[in-house]
Amino acid sequence: MTDKSDITLTINGKAHAIRVEARRTLADAIREECGQTGTHIGCEHGVCGACTVLVNGEPVRSCLMFAQQADGKQIRTVEGLARGDEMHVMQRAFMENHGLQCGFCTPGFLMLAVGVLERELDISDHDLVDVLSSNLCRCTGYQNIIKAVRAAAIEMRQS
Amino acid sequence: MSAPAKPVLVGKSVLRKEDGPLLRGQGRFAADINFPDQIYMRVVRSTYAHGRIVSVDLAPALAIPGVVAAWSFKDVADIPPIDFRLTRLEQLAAYRQTILAKDKVRYVGDPVAVVFAEDPYLAEDAAEHVDVEIEELPVILHADGEVGEFRDGLPTETALIEKNYGDVDAAFAGAHATVELTLSIGRHSGVPMETRGAIGRYIAETDMLEMYGAAKVPHWNRDQLAKMFGRTAANTNLFEGHVGGGFGIRGEMYPEDVLVCLAALRLGRPVKWIEDRREHLIAANHSRQQTHHIRAAIDINGNILAIDDEFFHDQGGYMRTHAATVPDLAAAMLPGPYRIPAYRARGHIRLTNKTPGGTYRAPGRYESTFVRERLLDAVAAKVGIDGVEVRRRNLIPVSEMPVTRALETLGTDIVLDSGDYAKLLDKALDGIGWSTLLAQIDERRKAGELVGAGIGMFVEKSGLGPFDDVRITVGIDGKIEVVTGAASVGQGVETVIAQICAEKLGAGYDAISVIHGQTDRIARGLGAFASRVSVMTGEATRQAALKLRDNALAAASELMQLPADQLDIINGEIVRLDGSTGPSMSLAEIAKALEPGSNLVGDKEPGLFAEASFESKHMTYPYGVHVAVVSLARDTGGVTVERYLVAYDIGKAINPMLIDGQIVGGVAQGLGGALYEEFSYDDRGEPLAVTFADYLMPTAREVPQVDVIITEDAPSPLNPMGLKGAGEGGANAVGAAIAAAIDDALGQPGAITRLPVSPQRVRELINGIA
């Protein structure tokens, strides 16, 4: 297992030149090689969505993508949402609506919601719940996550 | 000019202190912790549910470059099995789990060997090369079947829990009628989103053993690890970072925690272990699985004269840290909010060839509430009254409070401290619009729909003692640190403790930081379980904050030359109550004036701080009502939860937003156990739910809007703020309420006898197949 290749992962605008095996997942590479531990790994088989990041603007389960497949692509993670001290609308909405408890699934939900709303700002409430049902949370019972994302959507539409 | 109003924080839904780092991706979960030169552990697990270990050959793994070490049982034979934390019974000791399987494996997932390597992928590869030969043995998969042999003649029935009071036999002999049911609860568990993880580190220069990734009960685990390794608490420390959900199962001491620490000691390098999801689903504690045979003796009006329950608790392969806790709580809490003149419960704890069990949110109560509330509904059907009326007739009236149950659990006598159960039932029915709801259901049924409503009532327990310590210190920068022996599993401990401290001391909420789960910061602590933190740590915080306030005002009195009773502290500033003007002082300035060597300190201990301990022999007993409305799909048997309401009396709410969050989250988990989640096994004991594709947790689609009514009608008399806990009431009665609602929708009282209720079963019932 020494088939390592040189690749560049561009995470939140910053290029990381790394050397990884073909089998290394994007999630592991983001966390270990690039040190961005905000992206969490919950199941490693693409069901829970905790590891959701945006790759070229699309929500992707980074446990199901190999790092080499993301070579040269634009990756966004939870660390890139805030502008300095100022939180992203979505982060603030999660705080104000108590949309998190333990916070482990939260980065995945934030990236999923931001990715979807950036692509389809006028998504219906019904479709939004459908999208959010693709990630798992064990603490909140989802109601406050849905509230938070709807609140953020309203604010994003206004700005 | 009068002093500004003193801010009230207890009772306010302030935003959480925890959220900032978690939202920014700055959390420090177990997998986020790394040390230079660390190696990685991978566990080799049994693929057989029951078998004799013939041989474990580590050589093929050790031959792989980058593999540092590999162990089987003989390498760790000097380490004692993992001991019990709660509800110890001496006869259970023989059934404890060793950190690697000794001569037999007892469930699929049982740790047989471990491999340590330079890289986690490599460790996983190497584990596949450990050659384990196992001779398969017959399996026991039903706790209520014949008793088998654990080993050396020890029966698989490890203990019989017996709890009773009153003359049960006489009550049945004289009863108007009896009602008898057999009911089962399926095997499911907490399944936090963060899998388990532990990092062991040994610092030779100071002879210090450290474990990171601790949770729930760091101090107990520290003491146990020290004991197992022949060390002391003074040179063993555990550190809790962020914890990705607890729910009872995370943070208990497991074989893997011991193994990483042992490896750190022996190999001299930091050792990291992060569980994968498949491992989690077969190796971390399962819970809940019980079968009850329950009967009630009743009079002509449906008043219960006695309850007699015999149940079988499926503990899985070994007795773990909780020992008899879950069946003990099931038996002790089964009577619930009702007047039960005579009671007898016998709980058989049985080992089977499945993953071992422990507590899961509302342990024993999710189970016994399902059983008791099914029984109440059956009593109603027997005497021809409805589910509300049968409960009204049997509820303990507020005039009888407090009520001593003549039962004990968790080392405490059950004394229901306060409660107005009937009032809460009224509030719940009002909240859901019960009579309108029934009329709507009636209309929809006429139109051919299968729709129904059900109720579950319960008494919870919270605030388990016996103690909690808190130390509050004001720094010379004005920052206030509250050091506790509590733990956080994501429920908002920092927020509620800061709220209490800020209000009672008179400090700013933002100035306060709350330390938990760090064994090097406080000598003892009991951690986070049994909905205890808000009550125990909360009251200790209140006492320490008031002491600190006195200390600060005493110093301010000298410095400002005013009597202390003419001073107050508001937002961290000392203010004059008499309206006089003059230089004011901040808490920071007083802390500075009390620095070592200052005149003010004299021969006292320097610094602005206070400590308090709160001791409590009895638990507090919150209570609640769940109301569920479901509809059934005729073609698929699918159950849709249309509405859900929880009314819960918390005694005194510190932060209603967080209580609401606890309750709704608990409902979601309760729904999982009622409708979706089950650890099932094939007839060789092979687990069938090993991924999130087979273990079905509710998503945003399945969990309905939950209406929550938080009441404060029955403050606890056991602590001055009246606090009770909120962690478990959301989950407690979900199985009960959902089962009752499905019965009602089917028009078949008593149809649901088993959780989870599968669509297949609902479809059979719709089609009249018993």
TrEMBL record, chain A:
Keywords of this entry: 2Fe-2S, Iron, Iron-sulfur, Metal-binding, Oxidoreductase
Keyword hit for Calcium: no
InterPro entries: 2Fe-2S-bd, 2Fe-2S-bd_dom_sf, 2Fe-2S_ferredoxin-like_sf, 2Fe-2S_ferredoxin-type, 2Fe2S_fd_BS, Beta-grasp_dom_sf, Diverse_Oxidoreductases
2Fe-2S ferredoxin-type domain location: 5-81
Pfam families found in the cross-reference section: Fer2 (PF00111), Fer2_2 (PF01799)
Heme found in the keyword field: no
Name of this protein: (2Fe-2S)-binding protein
Organism: Tardiphaga alba
UniProtKB/TrEMBL annotation, chain B:
InterPro entries: Ald_Oxase/Xan_DH_a/b, Ald_Oxase/Xan_DH_a/b_sf, Ald_Oxase/xanthine_DH-like, AldOxase/xan_DH_MoCoBD1, AldOxase/xan_DH_MoCoBD2, AldOxase/xan_DH_Mopterin-bd_sf
Residues annotated as domain Aldehyde oxidase/xanthine dehydrogenase a/b hammerhead: 24-138
Listed PANTHER family: ALDEHYDE OXIDASE 1-RELATED (PTHR11908:SF132), XANTHINE DEHYDROGENASE (PTHR11908)
Keywords on record: Molybdenum, Oxidoreductase
Protein name (Swiss-Prot/TrEMBL): Xanthine dehydrogenase family protein molybdopterin-binding subunit
Protein origin, superkingdom: Bacteria
SUPFAM superfamilies in the cross-refs: CO dehydrogenase molybdoprotein N-domain-like, Molybdenum cofactor-binding domain
